[in-house]
């Protein structure tokens, strides 16, 4: 009887190991696809910005409306540069789970209203390393109109997964966030304009 239990436990253990390996490989494949997407889209965004016509004199009143350009079925509002991490990332206009697999997404707000919140997956080529940012590090966001907004990291924090109100409170000019590896918390980087 003891050997039947031992054999059954070994089978269950082997199945769990195979399932964990499959999940790991699927995650690695998604991360590689996301990195390839960033590499393909970012030059197109930079090119679009460089071709942008100069401002036509319209009133630059604070607004959540942002110019967006469609590339490969996604609307992009610009790109982030995080020099301390060696990252440049396109930003999709509106977030959803499928878009997060492609690039970081605007969760809410805008640079002109000093309340931009950007969500990203914790892939290594997306927001995976943002927990390494320190107060004083710089983050830049360039919109599709060619305007660059310069930010300085003020706080790196951990919020609960349900802290939506705290995430979007508008107390900081820019917030970047991603989930931790078990999905139970949000690594949150708060920045102010510099």
General description of the model:
The chain is α+β, with helices and mostly antiparallel strands and 194 residues long. The chain has a domain at 61-193: Sortase, Chain: A, CATH 2.40.260. It has 3 helices and 9 strands; from the N terminus they run αβββαββββαββ. The chain has helices at 2-51, 97-100, 164-167; strands at residues 69-71, 74-82, 87-92, 105-108, 116-119, 138-143, 148-160, 174-179, 185-193. Strands 1, 2, 3, 4, 5, 6, 7, 8 and 9 form a 9-stranded mixed β-sheet that branches. It is globular, with a radius of gyration of 20 Å. It starts with a helix and ends with a strand. The mean pLDDT is 86.
List keywords for this structure.
9-stranded mixed β-sheet; alpha+beta; 194 residues; Sortase, Chain: A; 3 helices; globular
What would you say about this model in short?
This protein has helices spanning 2-51, 97-100, 164-167, and strands at 69-71, 74-82, 87-92, 105-108, 116-119, 138-143, 148-160, 174-179, 185-193. It has 194 residues and is of the alpha+beta class. The chain has a domain at 61-193: Sortase, Chain: A, CATH 2.40.260.
């Amino acid at each position: 009887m003891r050997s039947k239990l031992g054999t059954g436990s070994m089978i269950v253990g082997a199945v769990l190991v195979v399932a964990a390996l499959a999940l790991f490989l699927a995650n690695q494949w998604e991360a590689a696809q996301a990195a390839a997407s960033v590499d393909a889209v970012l030059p197109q965004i930079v090119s679009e910005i460089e071709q942008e016509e100069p401002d036509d004199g319209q009133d630059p009143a604070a607004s959540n409306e942002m110019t967006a350009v469609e590339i490969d079925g996604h609307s992009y509002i610009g790109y982030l540069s995080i020099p301390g991490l060696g990252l440049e990332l396109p930003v999709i206009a509106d977030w959803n789970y499928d878009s997060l697999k492609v690039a970081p997404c605007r969760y809410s707000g805008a640079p002109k209203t000093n309340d931009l919140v950007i969500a990203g997956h914790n892939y290594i080529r997306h927001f995976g390393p943002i927990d390494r940012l320190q107060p004083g590090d710089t983050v830049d966001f360039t919109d599709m109109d060619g305007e660059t907004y310069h930010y300085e990291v003020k706080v790196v924090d951990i919020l609960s997964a349900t802290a939506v109100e705290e995430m979007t409170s508008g107390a900081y000019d820019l917030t970047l966030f991603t989930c931790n590896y078990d999905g139970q918390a949000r690594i949150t980087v708060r920045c102010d304009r510099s």
